[in-house]
UniProtKB/TrEMBL annotation:
InterPro entries: 4Fe4S_Fe-S-bd (IPR017896), 4Fe4S_Fe_S_CS (IPR017900), PSI_iron-sulfur_center (IPR050157), YfhL-like (IPR047927)
One family name in Pfam for this protein: Fer4
Highest taxon listed in the record's lineage: Bacteria
Lineage: Bacteria, Pseudomonadati, Pseudomonadota, Betaproteobacteria, Burkholderiales
NCBIfam families named among the record's database cross-references: di_4Fe-4S_YfhL
Residue stretches making up the 4Fe-4S ferredoxin-type domain: 1-29, 30-64
Keywords linked to the UniProt accession: 4Fe-4S, Iron, Iron-sulfur, Metal-binding
Protein name in UniProt: YfhL family 4Fe-4S dicluster ferredoxin
Gene3D superfamilies linked: 3.30.70.20
Native species: Yanghanlia caeni
Length: 82
């Protein structure tokens, strides 16, 4: 599953540099995660780094973008080649 940032985001700038896939960027009101680039850090880390470092715990699983581990690994391999 891709992750998403909720409205509780305080725009602290901590998550963006932690993302190895550059999936996080500033949106109109707060940071957003591009589901096409989010692998939940599969292939890089054991757990999503944005969630680890978020001081307000506003990053959650995006139910609109459900993916199993195999799909996330395939996405990681595709992004690594790009």
């Amino acid at each position: 599953m891709a992750l998403r940032i909720t409205d509780e985001c305080i725009n602290c700038d901590v998550c963006e540099p932690q993302c190895p896939n550059t999936a996080i960027s500033m949106g109109p009101e707060h940071y957003i995660i591009d589901p096409d680039r989010c692998t939940e850090c599969v292939g890089h880390f054991d757990e999503p780094q944005c969630q680890v470092f978020c001081p307000v715990e506003c990053i959650e699983v995006d139910p609109d973008h459900t993916e199993d581990r195999e799909t996330l690994e395939a996405k990681f391999r595709r992004l690594a080649v790009s």
